[in-house]
Amino acid sequence: MKISRANALNPLNSLVCKELTTCLELYDADKEVGAIVLTGSEKAFAAGADIIEMRDKTYPETYATAMLGDWDKLQKIR
To answer: What is the pLDDT of residues 58-71, one digit of tens each?
Structure first.
């Protein structure tokens, strides 16, 4: 999987988070996979959350919808 958004260095919006987590879970379930390696480009890996996606949301909205909640699943990846 390649995370690539030419217009942003921080593509970690809710859609990318869900896709990345799903992909990593599939690799984790594959007994043939011995390691999972995430790398960045020469310029940046990811600066963090997508502020544009978050800018119009209140804290209660992000909490109630578990925005980026898929990141919690990463703790279970071996």
So the answer is: 989 888 888 778 88
pTM of the complete model: 0.73
1 domain residue, yes or no: no
Nearest to 15 by CA among 6, 7, 5: 5
Residue 9 in any domain: the answer is: no
Distance CA 27, CA 71 (A): 16
How is residue 8 written in tokens? 């942003």
Would you say residue 27 lies in a domain? yes
2 lies in some domain: no
